Amino acid sequence: xxxxxxxxxxxxxxxxxxxxxxxxxxxxxxxxxxxxxxxxxxxxxxxxxxxxxxxxxxxxxxxxxxxxxxxxxxxxxxxxxxxxxxxxxxxxxxxxxxxxxxxxxxxxxxxxxxxxxxxxxxxxxxxxxxxxxxxxxxxxxxxxxxxxxxxxxxxxxxxxxxxxxxxxxxxxxxxxxxxxxxxxxxxxxxxxxxxxxxxxxxxxxxxxxxxxxxxxxxxxxxxxxxxxxxxxxxxxxxxxxxxxxxxxxxxxxxxxxxxxxxxxxxxxxxxxxxxxxxxxxxxxxxxxxxxxxxxxx
Amino acid sequence: xxxxxxxxxxxxxxxxxxxxxxxxxxxxxxxxxxxxxxxxxxxxxxxxxxxxxxxxxxxxxxxxxxxxxxxxxxxxxxxxxxxxxxxxxxxxxxxxxxxxxxxxxxxxxxxxxxxxxxxxxxxxxxxxxxxxxxxxxxxxxxxxxxxxxxxxxxxxxxxxxxxxxxxxxxxxxxxxxxxxxxxxxxxxxxxxxxxxxxxxxxxxxxxxxxxxxxxxxxxxxxxxxxxxxxxxxxxxxxxxxxxxxxxxxxxxxxxxxxxxxxxxxxxxxxxxxxxxxxxxxxxxxxxxxxxxxxxxx
Lengths: 297, 297
What we know:
2 copies of one chain form a homodimer. Chain A is of the alpha/beta class. Chain A folds into 2 domains: 4-110 and 281-293, 2-Layer Sandwich (Nucleotidyltransferase, domain 5), CATH 3.30.420.40; 124-277, ATPase, nucleotide binding domain (Nucleotidyltransferase, domain 5). The first copy, chain A, contains 9 helices and 12 strands. In chain A, the strands form 3 sheets. Chain A has a 5-stranded mixed β-sheet. In chain A, helix 8 (250-263) links the parallel strand 11 (238-242) and strand 12 (273-276). The longest helix of chain A has 25 residues, at 210-234. The two termini of chain A are 25 Å apart. At the A-B interface, strand 9 and helix 7 of A face strand 9 and helix 7 of B.
């Protein structure tokens, strides 16, 4: 049976999925990368791909990749990924695998969005945005059914919008960014060193710790303001929220929807759907596979 | 000679341009509306259109409209414009003029952007954004050569992004919006009642008034943070800035470019072009005309 191999290169694991054009999963494999600073991540990719082929006894008809960093405008490689995954920048995946078709490359948030639009929380949407809330805040946008890429391929970096022009600049120089207002990497700074991950912060809010509650509520208000802003800019029908912090479930979504009732522009009562991601850690591999099957030069 | 009639319905005047497919202006007319609350704006539109036809002794081959408010998804009318220009909402322009072709409708900032892309400051750009800085802050975005409209047609409202989640909510509920950080309508509030338009504020900065300088510099920083944010979201190659406040020229663009050198993400040194609008008060009519000639159902 013809299948696409979706490869999702993450910081900890390489996830591969063999998936048909109708979205049926034929096989899957996950192999540890050995960490993002280790050059052996390439072996992990080969091993994960090989496990699938051995299991299915056939080569994929299409291959697609999701990886961190900035894809090149021709979508053949990651053009820009300073400091992590040595050898990823400029790697031409089609050549590396000696594959007959182009192996198109997405960044991880773009792939997750395409996965969720294909088979998950944003099915049938023509205009949708996705946030991944984790260490940082990733993002991607679908506009009129097409992935928003922009001039250099960096469009959709929704975590890097300013919510405070006087604030500290983040890793791409955005002052007071959404990423720094809700991402795990800034939590220690935001809490005077008391918390270093959102799970512990949420546990403290359940113990009625007023400081923890204030920090969490500020984060949610920042996220709501960012979503309201992006609704005015991109006008999505669906807003998908994934990543580790989204596992908070109702403790995230209930106060977030309450804030959006204050901040969202709702002409004639219309409002955007705010929904949790559905595909979990398979979203990126699904999106990479879909992108490979639908790639046009 | 075949021409498109571009109609730009503004608060004070209706501006009409007769323009060929190559962008040559054959005739133009401007008629006062009598104010946005007066129902006789429709007569002003008819008069402005008639002046052109009388002058050219021929009917237009295409007609297009730019108006304030939210265009309907089918682009036949302004669906939403509460409180101003009575009778504009839901007005079907094709029926009103008994015109053989669809008369497509844009909002004023969308039309200005299409005009600038066609004949002005963003020529040949495939990805561009435009701000109009005036009483409020209008905006529009071009993505892969197409106007960004979104699900409900409200995409591109770039003035309504939050720069302070704890701030006062603006006319569409965005807390601490860009519009309220730089638009003339909020200047009195931002200056403790000392200034009511940006021209007077700028005159005071030239007299070395430290309070005026602080207000102006805060506005510029807010605009720079907003532009940096939208570069990360939409990745334009060109950012066009028009509207009354842009007449400040170097007093706007010099400090704005300085702030962007701090805030803009510049992968491999690439930076967006920040340019003043070139078409002045003709941009909207040019854009409406272009949109009519290029309209596809």
